[in-house]
Structures are given as C-alpha cells and as structure tokens.
Design goal:
- InterPro entries: SMN_gemin7.
- It holds the Pfam family Gemin7.
- The chain is of the alpha+beta class and about 100 residues long.
- About 25% of the residues lie in helices and about 40% in strands.
- It has a domain of about 70 residues: SH3 type barrels.
- The protein has 2 helices and 5 strands; from the N terminus they run αββαβββ.
- It has a 5-stranded antiparallel sheet.
- A hairpin with a 2-residue loop joins strand 3 and strand 4.
- The longest helix has 21 residues.
- The protein is globular.
C-alpha cells in the first residue's frame, strides 16, 4: 500500500514482522514467571518480583523516537518498601537494570 509521496510501507511491515519475531525469541529465552531483581532509579536497593513480560522501547516504536511513549517491564508480586503489589508495569525509563534468575 503506497504512503504519502508514493512510498511503499513494505519496509515498515517487514520491520514490524522482524520485531515480533525478536520478541518471540526473547520470550522463549527468558521464559515466563522468572524471579527478577529490579534496580529502579528512585530506590537505593533492588526490589524482587516475578517477570511476566518485557518489551524494550526500541522494539515497540522503531527508529523514530516518540517522546511520551516508553517500553515496559510487567511483573507480578513486586516487593516494594511499602508492601507487595500483585501486578505492576514499570516504564523502561525508570529501570536502571534487570537481573533475571535462570536457576
């Protein structure tokens, strides 16, 4: 399908397919319900959680930056200093590091 200016969006479609394949590979490597330590910018110590899913911003939005959109890490049983959250979604901009336990 042609875009404005007569350009084809086939390149964009192929990028989207490659992103989805990469996410499928990433998901199979990491698995689901893995214990993780989240190092958050606002907290001095890492917090424990169970990884549900992760999608980096670059995979979501491609090569053109979108100012108000971020990738995300979705977790269960997030242990914070204030208590435990059963589910949480953390912007990748707030995440300093993510330690995934494969044992």
């Amino acid at each position: 399908m042609p875009l404005a200016g007569g350009q084809s969006n086939s390149y964009t479609e192929s990028q989207a397919i490659l992103r989805l394949r990469y996410l499928q590979i990433l998901k199979s490597l990491i698995g689901r319900n893995r214990p993780v330590l989240l190092h958050l910018a606002e907290l001095p110590e890492p917090v424990r959680a169970t990884l549900e899913s992760w999608c980096p911003c670059d995979l979501l939005y491609g090569s053109q930056p979108v100012p108000d959109l971020h990738g995300a890490v979705c977790v269960q049983n997030l242990h914070t200093p204030l208590g435990v959250l059963s589910k949480a979604r953390i912007r990748d901009a707030d995440l300093v590091a993510l330690d995934i336990s494969f044992s």
